């Protein structure tokens, strides 16, 4: 669950989206995080390739998160919700891995952009350029 929330939060931050749909998930994650020591994001220099992979994966994760948020709202019962969350986590992890990044690297970049507005701006620009390139190739 913590991994999914970290991925989801990073995706929302990198794309500048509102996190209102995920409020319940984030509240739960905050409770989970309070029980575990926080890993601080090292002040790393990430390569342009890694940042581009992060931007691409973040866009995928934002779509996945939106889909699964709708599914989560449609199911009743804690067990069914946990199953949806597990499935969402698995799909998000696969999206990150398919982008060429390890989940830990993706999460480290996500934490770094939370602490570094310039890095966040750089990733957002990469996401915009990637989106416009995809539009032109269609």
Automatic annotation (TrEMBL):
Keyword Cell inner membrane on entry: no
Organism lineage: Bacteria, Pseudomonadati, Pseudomonadota, Gammaproteobacteria, Oceanospirillales
Region of interest (Disordered), ranges: 23-50
Keyword Zinc-finger among record annotations: no
UniProt cross-references to Pfam families, sorted A to Z: DUF4168
Residue ranges annotated for the DUF4168 domain, each copy included: 47-123
Range of residues in the leader sequence: 1-24
Keyword tags: Signal
InterPro entries: DUF4168
Residue spans of biased composition, Low complexity class: 23-41
This protein's name: DUF4168 domain-containing protein
Organism: Halomonas aquatica
